[in-house]
DUF1203 domain-containing protein
Amino acid sequence: MTAIRFVAMPTTDAEHLWNGGRDAYDGLPATIVSDGDGNPCRHCLGNIEEGEELLVFAYRPFPALQPYAETGPIFLHKQPCRRYAAEEIQPPMLAMSPDFIVRGYSANDRIVYGTGAVTDIAEIQAYAETLLARSEIGYVHVRSARNNCFQCRIDKVKAPAPAENGA
């Protein structure tokens, strides 16, 4: 069994947008009001409640442009929120849909073909563990099964470095 962690959008990315920065397509985020369920914040990994303002913008969760660097619309609370910290627990926002696409990527940010699968929410953790046990998989994305929107990333928990023996 591979220990995993659910990873939210980096706070530096969220702060960039909260401070008036531009999105992956060099546009300003749009501000809309949440109509309730189905508006997951990719920073706190919770739902943006009805009546709350949110930002919608193009997001590319990859370090550089390249053919596999998917970009799509996502949501963020308009007001700063705390980044998801319970990384060992499947985020509550993943209960908003019956299933998601779970797909493996190599360490150089390329899709590993044959890994993408529509996965029931109860099976996300097990499937991610199976993928991350493979040497060619560097990390996993959870994406909407209906719209392919990025939800969160799943990483292996790094084993602690062995303690050095003092001489």
User: Anything to note?
Assistant: The first helix runs from residue 11 to 18.
